[in-house]
Amino acid sequence: MMKVSVVVLLLLAGSLAASAAFSGGRMGGTSFRSSSRTRSSSYHHSRSTPSPSSYHSTPSTIVIGWPTIIILFAICFVIILRYVIAMTTSVVKLQVGLLGMATSLQKDLNQIAHIADTSTPKGFTYILRETALSVLQHHDYCNSAYSSVELKMGVEECEKLFNKLSKEERVKVHEETLVNFNNIKKQSATTHEEVSHGACNQYIVVTIIVAARGVHELQPIRSSEHLKIALKKLASIPSKDVLAAEVLWTPQKENDVFTEQEMLEGYPLLRSHFWDYFHIF
User: Fold this and answer.
1) Which of 58, 96, 120, 178 has the most crowded Cβ, counting Cβ within 10 A?
2) Is the pLDDT of residue 137 over 80?
3) How confident is the model at residue 63, as a pLDDT?
4) Residue partners of 274: CB distance under 8 A and separation at least 6
């Protein structure tokens, strides 16, 4: 009797382990370091040394009235405002839940990951645009989405938040089976055929994380129209402003199974954003 119980427990443990063995894809890259160097270089080069002739002046009486003071304050305000705007960065996260029948979306993302140049901001923009386009083409399969935006001062704070969000998402998959990040590529030979046992995949989750200069806003997503607007906004961010971009999707393998329960446990923010009446919008 004891042996039978042990066997049953082992079988249950095996099935639980298998259920968590969903695959993940990851593509994108960062350019925080090069951006910091460029900003620093441009600042130092913009400083000018006064010419010797500027020191030769005749004594004179300077009278400063209220109009002059107001003008000086206005100039200082504009300089400070321009500095704040130049230093402001945005970290945007968009997460989309789709029905598992959208297998062609997985194929699209896999193809993008294979061919994308992830070493430059132009490559990051390509990934954003192609991913947004593919999700838009599969919007009939979308049933939930979540967005968030955080503003940070300076590239360093922006990088910290971007890396934090990236790590939080990456640990949710059992294995990253396809990676193209900063032009470092990896493809796992692991198969998940043993996981499916003939079952159909129920859900696909796509997560887009973007760090960019300037203020970028996304409204709360409560309908397919809101999702379309958000995707188009992400796709329209100029490459010169993109500091980093990352796209993660699970399952990456078409024969992998990602259940509704797993999705709700791993992506609780999507739970409260289900659209039972999604297709009426």
Assistant:
1) 96
2) yes
3) 56
4) 143, 144
* Distance of alpha carbon 156 from alpha carbon 57, whole angstroms: 44
Residue 261 lies in a domain: yes
Report residue 84 as tokens: 């704040």
For residues 145 and 221, the answer to whether their CB atoms sit within 8 Å is: yes
Q: Are strands 23-30 and 175-181 parallel, antiparallel or unpaired?
A: parallel
73-96 residue pLDDT tens = 677 666 655 555 556 999 999 999
What type of residue sits at position 66? W
Q: Confirm whether 79 is domain-assigned.
A: no
Residue 165 lies in a domain: yes
61 within some domain: no
- 186: amino acid identity, one letter: K
pLDDT at 6: 39
Structure tokens at 21: 């063995």
- Output the six-digit token pair for 27: 């593509």
Cα(83)–Cα(157) distance, rounded to whole angstroms?
Answer: 16
Element (H, E) at 5: helix 2-19
Across the beta sheet with 203-213, the strand order is 142-153, 88-99, 203-213, 242-250, 23-30, 175-181, 184-187
Number of domains in the chain: 1
